[in-house]
Design brief:
By secondary structure, the protein is of the alpha+beta class. Helices cover 62% and strands 14% of the residues. It has helices spanning 4-14, 16-25, 32-39, 43-55, 74-94; strands at residues 30-31, 59-64, 67-72. It has a 3-stranded antiparallel β-sheet. The two termini are 26 Å apart.
Length: 102
């Protein structure tokens, strides 16, 4: 089953803009300016979402001169994907398990 930490991670990734950011970072490292251009979000809004992703351990930063690049941490996504795979496997056998009504 999912732990509370995993549930928190699901909540973090459930936001459409954060999911869009993660999808973009899965392809390449990007700075805030790139993400503003790609998403159309305001810089302050984007920075808040990036902070949430950073605090959740989904992305990490890499300074490059006066810019900060963001990089997706694939192990976090792998762990979450594995949890969902486990849920799917349980659901496949769930039709064989039926709790009797009292």
């Amino acid at each position: 089953m999912m732990t509370s930490v995993d549930t928190d991670l699901v909540r973090v990734l459930a936001d459409p803009l954060r999911l869009q950011i993660v999808t973009l970072l899965a392809k390449e490292m990007l700075c805030t300016s790139h993400l503003v251009e790609e998403t159309g979000a305001r810089q302050t809004n984007l920075s808040n979402h990036l902070r949430v992703l950073r605090e959740a351990g989904v992305v990490e930063t890499e300074p490059c001169g006066r810019y900060t690049y963001y990089k997706l941490l694939p192990d976090v996504i792998d762990r979450l994907a594995g949890q969902f795979t486990g849920l799917a496997e349980s659901a496949r056998t769930a039709s064989e398990n039926k709790r009797a009504c009292p």
